[in-house]
Amino acid sequence: MKTVKILLGAICVCMSSWAFSQTSWPSRPIKLIVPYPPGGPVDQLARTVAPKLGEILGQAVMIDNKAGASGTIGLDAAIKAEPDGYTFGFGVPGGITVLPHLQKLPYTLEEINYVSLIAKVPQVITVGPKVPVNNLQELIALAKKEPGKLNYASAGNATTPHLGSELLAQETGIKMMHIAYKGAVPAVTALLAGEVQVLSADLPAVLQFVSKGVKILAVSGSKRVEALPNVPTTAELGFPSVFVESNYGMVASNGTPAAITQKMREALTLTLNTPAIKTQIANQGAIATSSSAEEYKKLMQQESMKWALVLKKGQITLE
Prior knowledge:
Helices cover 42% and strands 19% of the residues. It has 319 residues and is an alpha/beta fold. The chain folds into two domains: 2-121 and 245-310, D-Maltodextrin-Binding Protein, domain 2; 122-244, Periplasmic binding protein-like II (D-Maltodextrin-Binding Protein, domain 2, 3-Layer(aba) Sandwich).
């Protein structure tokens, strides 16, 4: 029975690939704009998905890194590309759910053509090697004992690490000092060096540093993650509202034919359901997740409303 299921799965993939090859699109390589530099977690995620996606579509999917301005430069380029189905973008949450509340952007949210989610990346709450706590309860107790003494790092003002720690402080009633760094790498370096004591960050940014002493106290969500089966969630610990994850997806420009975005969505779903791809993404600390366009759009709208409240309550600006 197991052999039959495997054969049927292989036949389905082959038939899907054949169906794509029978259409006029795509007839040449497709560009996927990644709004961050090469080598980072987001770029790694995109490069994990691209080869298999290209295999299913029958044309190469080429990564084009356009970094800068917290991801908005690359996002703008993708949204305003020629709507011919040969340029897509890697949708990053900051440019969709946070920055529109803080500054005027070169694009509007109405211009975004949502295709599908690709992955959800859980955020984790971590402390440095020398911080005398081993769980979230102890961290909260220490912060309440010495208000304002603990420093927490971020990858910059209004980034997800900043907002994650701010949400934690708002929901638990603790006070910590924010130290902004220029990116996730220097923030983690500061945590290891003891310049700061706390860091809320996307799991892929810190997972490799557990062996160097970074202590992961909790997953900011409702489900434990495969890479950290023994680490509890904030929901388990009594703080269900401390829920932070980065949702990455694929976007296109308005005007891209619906038939093309539908075929891309189908190809993405096949890619993300491939066991080897799922495993690679899980090993990076992320969760492969496809969706409909409406589901992706609705999730981004919900996230936008949540962060708008956190920004207002915390009086957070880009300065």
